[in-house]
Amino acid sequence: MLLLISGSQVRALHHPPFFLPVMMKEIPSMVNRSSNHASKKFVSVVVFIERPLSLSDPILMLLKSSYPKSKIEVFFAGKSTHKPANEIYKQFLGQFKSVKTVKIKSDESLYSEVLAFTKGEICLFTSSDCSPDPQWVKRMDQTFLGNDLIGMVLGGIQQRRVDFHNKVEQYCEQIGWGSTGEILGRGSDYLTSTKVEIFEDKEINRILPLLKPVNMAVRRSLLLKLSKNFTVLDILEKLRDEKLNFFYNPEAEIERFHSMDFKELKKEIEVGIVKKTAWLSRNSKRIDIQVQFFGRQEWFLPFWVSINVSWDDFHWLNLFGVLVLMECFTKGFSAHFGEGFWFNDEVLLLVSAFGFFLFKYFLPVLKIQPWSDFILWCWIRYRTNMSMFLRGLWTGLKFKCFYWGESW
């Protein structure tokens, strides 16, 4: 969801020229500002719909927005021509400045095809399966207020279950799937980070999976500078070219009630990887190496193609697992897997290393309830991570850059 808004006063953060715009986790001076602040901007809220709306859809929470309804226009955009049910359409039409439907060609063309109809200074993008907080529009507006260098704002996302008995949805809800904490999580901050983050240009790929019509705001003046048929990646590049800042405001929150099975989860992961590799292939050419053992070490070297190599717990786990199997096939059978094999110093070392990274990689899964499904949670984590890794290798070849993906 994309929001374009102008709001609250923010202390400008200085950063080197190679930094991508600043992303912040907490902006109390914005969030706590009185709702009566003087410059409430006219805003455009764009709602992406995949099927006809019903009275049970979460997006109806938008009707309870605390922002002046006379300063909000709403667009329902989808790939089919259907309009919301008459009773729903009338509810929105009766409260907001204007309500329109727009047919789009694809999910990515949402940004460019709806832009021509918008009039708001800030464009807010969300989805029909999202339930915006009543303060959502106001807090996005406050984030932009008084700082013309803020070009884009990402809001907080809370994944919620549609089917209480759906195990995949249960997993996604508890790990914070789709939340900024999940993307920013590093090491012990796994999926729960609340730290202020400043993203350098080299780290932008961490948040690319979040850049979809769920909870995002962009200045319309920035979008107007883009060429026809632009995508969300083009918005990022224009932000960098214009030296504008990119903030994260967790208080501008929505709840996402997105029906999820394993196939859908895998699809979202793979789409995110395609975005990452496409962005890497089009940007500065260099070798990026990130290695995690107890801490994270990073190296960056200029190069003639883009090469992104990450080595995390997932990769250590697989490396030592393969080495243990190789020992079994090359020496285990001849030793009949007796004490002479298992107590061999080399085998003990490999098995110990494998066990250490096995424990370290699956440790976050212990936070997921119920514990009786621990094996299932481990399988979902490992299987989706493997999909992410393999898709990264394949799309890296497609976009002529090498992507050895991060684990999550």
Overview of the molecule:
By secondary structure, the chain is an alpha/beta fold. The protein has 2 domains: 232 residues, Spore Coat Polysaccharide Biosynthesis Protein SpsA, Chain A; 124 residues, no CATH class. It is built from 13 helices and 12 strands. It has an 8-stranded mixed β-sheet with strand order 3-2-1-4-7-6-8-5. A 4-stranded mixed β-sheet has the order 10-9-11-12. Strand 9 and strand 10 form a beta hairpin. Helix 9 runs parallel beside helix 13 and helix 10 packs antiparallel against helix 12. It is globular, with a radius of gyration of 23 Å. The N terminus is likely disordered.
- What is the CATH homologous superfamily assignment of the largest domain? Spore Coat Polysaccharide Biosynthesis Protein SpsA, Chain A
pLDDT averaged over residues:
79
The profile of the biggest β sheet is: 8 strands, mixed
* Tally of individual domains: 2
Strand order of the largest sheet: 3-2-1-4-7-6-8-5
* CATH architectural group of the largest domain: Alpha-Beta Complex
Distance between the termini: 23 Å
Q: What is the name of the CATH topology of the largest domain? A: Spore Coat Polysaccharide Biosynthesis Protein SpsA, Chain A
How would you spell out the order of helices and strands?
HEEHEHEEHEHHEHHEHEEEHHHHE
